[in-house]
Amino acid sequence: MEKLKLAVLVSGRGSNLQALIDACSAPSFPAEIVLVISNKPDAHGLTRAEDAGIPTLCIDHKNYESRAEFDVQMTAAMTTFGTELVCLAGFMRLLSDEFCAHWHDRMINIHPSLLPSFKGLDVQQAALDAGVRFSGCTVHYVRPEMDSGPIIIQAAVPILADDTAASLAERILVEEHMIYPEAVRLIADGRVTVTGDCARILDHTAPTHSLVNPALKFGSITKF
Ligand code: GRF
């Protein structure tokens, strides 16, 4: 089986990278990681990749005069390794328009909110402050505007009465580790088509039940 070649870009902990490494270790998974790049020399993600025998590169943004030069270097490295899909996994650099154009519909990101709500940083606190009843995570194709682009898959996580930003982040992260490999699988299987700002999934099976938070008490509903 010809596998989709992934490059994963990280800046830190790399738990989503680990979820992708674990998924790719299954012989039937339709993708493989050919390269991991970090812009930070001490990113734990680099160690995870080395432990898994995956080629790594540290391209330290501090060594480049401009964002454009840094991005050109990353594209050159990924191209050398035959990258077909770029997976941003906690990569904490803004990307140039040219870089986004080069990898258009060939680059995805994971974000810990239900986009388009709560873009940027500290999104769990933002969700708590807004008083929403659900947050979650999103895997989407990357466009030049931060945290935007066609949505591939989302997981909704109910917010609990005593949640803190940390407890919510922890529950969302569990879902991230499930939906990121699933998004890669959908793409590798050729089931995702992008038209403009919208991605569609071939043979899309959606859950049939709604989630309600706070939970409905049995018998509390008046039917008209
Ligand atoms: C994740 O919460 C991801 O959604 C966001 O950055 C975090 C990276 O975590 N983009 P990790 O490095 O994958 O553990």
Explain the overall architecture.
With 224 residues, the chain is of the alpha/beta class. The chain has helices at 15-24, 44-51, 67-80, 97-102, 123-130, 165-188; strands spanning 4-10, 31-38, 56-58, 85-88, 107-111, 134-141, 151-158, 192-195, 198-201. The protein has 2 domains: 1-103, 3-Layer(aba) Sandwich (Rossmann fold); 109-224, Rossmann fold (3-Layer(aba) Sandwich), CATH 3.40.50.170. Helix content is 31%, strand content 23%. Strands 3-2-1-4-5-6-7 form a 7-stranded mixed sheet, sandwiched between helices. The protein has a two-stranded antiparallel sheet with strand order 8-9. Helix 1 packs parallel to helix 6 and helix 5 (123-130) crosses helix 6 (165-188). Bound molecules: 5-O-phosphono-beta-D-ribofuranosylamine. Residues 10, 12-16, 89-90, 110-112, 173, 176 line the site of 5-O-phosphono-beta-D-ribofuranosylamine.
How would you describe this structure in keywords?
two-stranded antiparallel ribbon, 31% helix, 9 strands, alpha/beta, Rossmann fold, 7-stranded mixed β-sheet, 2 domains, 224 residues, single chain, binds 5-O-phosphono-beta-D-ribofuranosylamine
Poorly predicted spans:
none
> What is the CATH class of the largest domain?
Alpha Beta
Task: Determine the strand fraction and express it as a percent band.
Answer: 15-25%
Instruction: Output the CATH topology of the largest domain.
Output: Rossmann fold
